[in-house]
Amino acid sequence: MSQFRQDPVSKDWIIISTGRKNRPMDFKSARSERISSPKETCPFEDLEKSGNLPIFYAFPDEKNWEVAVIPNKYPAININELCANEGVVGPYKVVEGVGRHELVITRDHDGNFTTLPDEQLKRLFLTFKERFKYLENDPCSNYASLFQSYGPTAGGSLYHPHYQILALPIVPPDIKRSLEGSLRYYRETGNCVHCEILKYELHSGARIVYEDDGVVAIAPFASRAPYEIRVFPKKHQSHFEESSDETIFHAAKVSAKVLNAIKSVLGDPDYNFFLHTSPFHGKTEYSHYHWHMEIIPKMSLFGGFEWSTGVDINSVDPDEATKLLKEAIK
User: Fold this and answer.
1) Which of 24-28, 235-239, 302-306 has the highest mean pLDDT?
2) In a 10 Å sphere around its CB, with 0-12 CB exposed, 13-18 middle and 19+ buried, how is residue 63 labelled?
3) Among positive and negative, which fits the CA dihedral 89, 180, 8, 247?
4) CA pair distance 114, 100, nearest whole angstrom
5) CATH number of the structural domain spanning residue 136
6) Is residue 23 part of a domain?
């Protein structure tokens, strides 16, 4: 059976079509083992030799760092000395491509965040928070995008674990749509749409992959892709950088558990992992929003229908994905 489902935030339609593929082995990665790249050629083993200085932030220090923040050697945008100028070119609006493009790296060449000991995992995610706190003081940056592209099909060109933060002069369109959908629901009901989703899902239990005292991981009812997962703090908070250290650590641990379950069920697929949070400027304006993290394994590709309509087809029922992942979580 196929079913159209609408996301209550974005208002996007999704087709759940389970007749196409419905067994985990249909999605298992062909990779039997992820192959490590040589340390000798890794640009993050010797930052000075590879020209990846300066270090913007390091823990515990620049010599013995376990986590370091460095500039992206090949940035998508240029470091801003002045705020971005806006203009028009014929019928087109343009904004200068300035901001910041940083990499957050961990010391262990083979230690993705899913395998880090608790203290190192906590330090990594608190580094994300510290960078957001730093970047929010830049009057030229409106939004910061945090993500990990794990594996080549997800856009990850380097093996050594690394995470990217881009401080942007604009609010990205996907974030803008999410903010507008959240605001629309709040004006209509007086409630946070994500809090309402969590309330329903916690009561139902059908799509709760994992939860602890502070955070819950759910398979969205209108999942865009097979085994898509979202991780929410249970307590409403609009800005990631304003959340408590404890909440962020809970989000880190739950995300790691879910990704390890995905690895167990699907055979270590490539994935995209990213944060959706509120823009920096407007703490009151965006109080209706609820930050969260999203995990999207790279299990399917867009075809002609998806590109021509903007409607994703997901061949795995989120309820079934939840059952398999729950069984795999240790």
Assistant:
1) 235-239
2) exposed
3) positive
4) 26
5) 3.30.428.10
6) no
pLDDT above 80 (res 19): no
Q: Left if phi > 0, otherwise alpha if psi is -120 to 50, otherwise beta: which for 25?
A: alpha
Closest CA to 60 of 109, 122, 123: 123
> According to DSSP H, which parts of the chain are helical?
118-135, 173-189, 193-204, 245-266, 304-309, 318-328
Do you find a cis peptide bond into 139, omega within 30 degrees of 0? no
Contacts 24+ apart (CB under 8 A), 43-52: 43/73, 43/158, 43/160, 44/105, 44/109, 44/158, 44/160, 44/162, 45/109, 45/160
The encoded tokens of residue 146 equal 């945090």
3-state secondary structure at position 100? strand
Spatial distance between the Cα atoms of 299 and 277, rounded to a whole number of angstroms: 25
- Residue 218 in any domain: the answer is yes
For residue 35, pLDDT over 80 is answered with no
Q: How far apart are CA 279 and CA 288, in angstroms?
A: 12
Residues 212/250, Cβ–Cβ less than 8 Å: yes
Higher pLDDT, 98 or 254: 254
- The boundaries of the domain holding residue 296 are 41-328
Nearest to 295 by CA among 240, 254, 245, 244: 254
Report yes or no on 15 lying in a domain: no
Query: What is the spatial distance between Cα 169 and Cα 98, in angstroms, rounded to a whole number?
Result: 7
Q: Is pLDDT at 32 greater than 70 in this prediction?
A: no
What total number of domains does the chain contain? 1
pLDDT over 60 at 68, yes or no:
yes
Evaluate whether 269 touches 159 at the Cβ level (below 8 Å). no
What is the Cα 158 distance to its own chain's centre? 18
Residue 100 lies in a domain: yes
Given a cut of 60, whether residue 23 has pLDDT beyond it is no
